[in-house]
Design brief:
Length: 490
């Protein structure tokens, strides 16, 4: 349906007035269908975030403020995104709605609504904002899935429930991620809740698969790329249709064995110096971000922009010097700081215990002075995070797939967490120091008043550790040495 009148016609024109009446008719019909008490206002000020039970207030807003930008499809008021996509090129729509028929519709709306219905579409959280952001940043191929997401966000979990279907699945999935439940155990919980605890007409999905499909109908795209078993090439671009490696001749596919013998050599292996083969897709993405950029939607500014990016720096462990840049990390000249003088360190440390990693510790002080704290630059935080990623693994023979599936599922929960009130973050645990620094009483909390001497000593200790006072302290010490030449510094 063509809605050009929304942005091209004057607010005082007959075409705009007739169009507003057609919108109000559609919005009221959708309210009756959804059994909601209120309707979100799509004016340029409210932008579907404010709800009104009296439809005449929305009418006044539309004549005063106009429609919000890019609301050509009335997806929040019953119009199908899929239908709009297929008919958006039609321009033969006329606006001859009879205003009297509209009045007869919404003047009697109180008789069509159940007074005990819960307000499922109220502004209790930011789901409306999230859905609007997704709608604005979506291609035509995904709009039908988004329409289903709209419906689930408005559908009660069961008759009379204060919780909608989408909100219930989000909270349950949040618990699954935080407590590391397996897919099998989560499916059993869903079946138990659906069959034994909730009303018969409940809309709760009964499997982990259905819950994931509900939360992320657009899908989290993961491209599967075959690789040579000897880490020679990736089967992409010019090699996409090859059936064997063009370098070593190894088959692209696994060979089925006739015997039951197990090959101990099978399983994941480190690529070593061939890591650049697996980094090639990342390099292509970085080139795209640098040259062309990616068109994204700014939810805060309500506008699209072209995102460009570049690599500022990389953080790797020490062996990565060898894998990524070809620097020698073994032998007598392995230190990137000392280089030719590395072997001199062996005169200080015993040759039995000497190791390049031991030697690198001697440069930490100079690195801190030049670059700042170690934890901002070294691999330690990332190595600790690897334990988190390893926790996603369910199939030890294919750990990468488990990590990808677990990480992407948790990423969906984190995305929703930014919009849904009361949904805690999965990856950020509550600190054990919570409440100790913001004035809340704790068990065993005690107060005391220090004496004047203790307070003076504490003040003096703080002053001694302030670098800005070092010149004055040195000047004072020099004066003492001149005054008492026979005394030592102690």
């Amino acid at each position: 349906m063509d809605h050009d009148w929304m942005y091209k016609a004057s607010y005082t024109s007959e075409i705009y007035a007739a169009g507003v009446q057609s919108f109000l008719s559609a919005a009221e019909a959708n309210r009756v269908k959804k059994r909601s008490r209120s309707i979100c206002c799509p004016c340029s000020v409210c932008q579907t975030f404010q709800y009104f039970e009296d439809i005449t207030e929305i009418e006044a807003h539309l004549f005063e403020n106009g429609f919000m930008p890019r609301y050509d499809c009335w997806s929040r008021h019953g119009e199908s995104l899929a239908a709009f996509s297929t008919s958006s090129t039609a321009n033969d729509t006329t606006y001859n709605d009879d205003a009297s028929s509209l009045n007869s519709t919404y003047n009697n709306d109180s008789s069509n609504l159940d007074e005990n219905d819960n307000h499922l579409n109220g502004p209790d959280d930011n789901l409306n904002e999230m859905l609007h952001d997704m709608e604005t940043n979506m291609g035509d191929a995904e709009i039908e899935n988004l329409q289903h997401l709209f419906e689930d966000a408005e559908k009660p979990l069961y008759t009379g429930s204060r919780l909608n279907k989408l909100d219930a699945v989000l909270n349950l999935s949040n618990l699954k991620s935080k407590n590391k439940w397996s897919d099998k155990s989560f499916t059993k919980l869903l079946v138990f809740l659906h069959d034994r605890m909730l009303l018969e007409d409940n809309e709760l999905p009964i499997s982990t698969y259905r819950a994931k499909k509900l939360m992320c109908p657009m899908g989290l795209e993961v491209e599967r790329i075959h690789a040579c078993p000897n880490n020679c090439i990736l089967y992409r671009k010019r090699y996409e249709n090859e059936h064997k490696c063009v370098v070593c001749g190894a088959s692209r596919y696994k060979q089925k064995k006739d015997s039951d013998e197990v090959d101990d050599d099978e399983g994941p292996k480190q690529p070593g110096n061939n890591i650049d083969v697996y980094l090639s897709p990342l390099i292509d993405d970085l080139k795209t971000l640098w040259d062309l950029g990616v068109n994204l939607y700014d939810a805060y500014g309500k506008e699209h922009f072209q995102l460009h990016a570049t690599i500022f720096c990389t953080i790797n462990d020490f062996p990565a010097y060898d894998n990524l840049s070809g620097y020698t990390t073994k032998g007598k000249k392995a230190c990137p700081v000392c280089e030719n003088e590395t072997s001199a360190t062996r005169d200080v440390f015993s040759t039995i215990i000497f190791d390049i990693m031991v030697h690198l510790i001697s440069h930490i002080v100079q690195e801190i002075k030049a670059c700042g704290p170690v934890f901002l630059r070294y691999m330690y935080p990332f190595e600790r995070y690897m334990s988190v990623l390893e926790g996603y693994v369910r199939n030890r023979h294919r750990p990468e797939g488990g990590i990808i599936e677990g990480y992407t599922s948790e990423e969906v929960i984190e995305f929703w967490q930014g919009y849904v009130k009361g949904l805690d973050s999965v990856g950020i645990p509550k600190t054990r120091h919570s409440g100790r620094l913001d004035g809340h009483a704790r068990v065993g909390f005690k107060t005391f008043s220090p004496s004047h001497e203790d307070l003076h000593d504490a003040h003096f200790v703080v002053l001694k550790h302030m670098t800005c006072l070092a010149p004055y302290a040195n000047e004072h010490m020099q004066m003492l040495r001149l005054t008492h030449p026979g005394k030592d510094d102690m």
